[in-house]
Amino acid sequence: MIKAVLFDMDGTLIDTEKYYRICWPKAMAHFGYEMSDEQALSMRSLGQPFAPAHLKEMFADENLDYPAIRAYRKELMEEYLAKNGIEIKRGAIELLNFLKEKKIRRAVATATDMERTERYLKQIGLYPYFDEIISATMVEHGKPAPDIYTFACAQLGLAPEECLAVEDSPNGVMSACQAGCQVAMVPDQTQPDDELKKKLTICANTLDKLKILFS
């Protein structure tokens, strides 16, 4: 029985992954690197220490200044969000209200830092829906390591198998699977391959479709 739902944020609750897809290549270009769309997509939900290692490996450059590039990418993201606003993903509010009525606990488990996570959720009115907000900055290893989901389950006082993780990206799915959670995927920028589908409890095109798991 599912007692809690743990949501990824970017690309799952809010429609921001499309901006990461733009901002990563722009930030890399600013520092003299040419990043393909496929390479940008591979960075989704990738946390510490995996993101800097992955970037250095992709560009075969051990001296690549990840902190500087990431800081510039964050600046670009803030500009895009200030200009375009933050959109809530389709079906999110319907699902959150449904879970609240069912008294199923709700948490966020995101690779984004706590300051921006809280600011974004408050800005769009989703913050009050959650019992716990877990940022990757609170654990040693980010996604795709299981740390963030293991920690989120512990914070809720539940076993991983009692929790459903909701993710949009392969790295997020891997993180939740390794933690032992049930996993729902609502794909955002790319569809799951056959191997990834085997790890899923359900794959749906919008968040509200996940209500079927509780009926």
Summary?
The chain has 215 residues and is an alpha/beta fold. It has helices spanning 17-30, 37-41, 50-58, 66-84, 92-101, 114-123, 147-156, 170-179, 194-197; strands at residues 4-7, 105-110, 132-135, 163-167, 182-185, 202-203. It has a 6-stranded parallel β-sheet with strand order 3-2-1-4-5-6, with helices on both faces.
Describe this structure in words.
InterPro entries: HAD-like_sf, HAD-like_SPP, HAD-SF_hydro_IA, HAD_sf, PGP-like_dom2. It comes from Roseburia amylophila. One of its GO terms (molecular function) is sugar-phosphatase activity. By secondary structure, the chain is of the alpha/beta class. Helix content is 42%, strand content 12%. It has helices at 17-30, 37-41, 50-58, 66-84, 92-101, 114-123, 147-156, 170-179, 194-197, and strands spanning 4-7, 105-110, 132-135, 163-167, 182-185, 202-203. Strands 3-2-1-4-5-6 form a six-stranded parallel β-sheet, with helices on both faces. The mean pLDDT is 95.
Structural topology:
Elements: E1 4-7, H1 17-30, H2 37-41, H3 50-58, H4 66-84, H5 92-101, E2 105-110, H6 114-123, E3 132-135, H7 147-156, E4 163-167, H8 170-179, E5 182-185, H9 194-197, E6 202-203
Helix pairs in contact: 1-4
Pfam families: Hydrolase
GO molecular function, one term: sugar-phosphatase activity
Organism: Roseburia amylophila
The number of helices is 9
Determine the CATH topology of the largest domain. Rossmann fold
CATH level 4 superfamily of the largest domain: HAD superfamily/HAD-like
The counted number of beta strands is: 6
CATH class of the largest domain: Alpha Beta
What structural class results from the helix and strand content? alpha/beta
Described by the principal axes of the CA atoms, the overall outline is globular
Tell me the Rg in angstroms: 17 Å
Largest sheet: 6 strands, parallel
Along the chain, the helix and strand elements come as EHHHHHEHEHEHEHE
Portion in beta strands: 5-15%
**Overall pLDDT metric:** 95
Overall CATH architecture of the largest domain:
3-Layer(aba) Sandwich
Distance N terminus to C terminus? 11 Å
Low-confidence parts, pLDDT < 50 over ≥5 residues? none
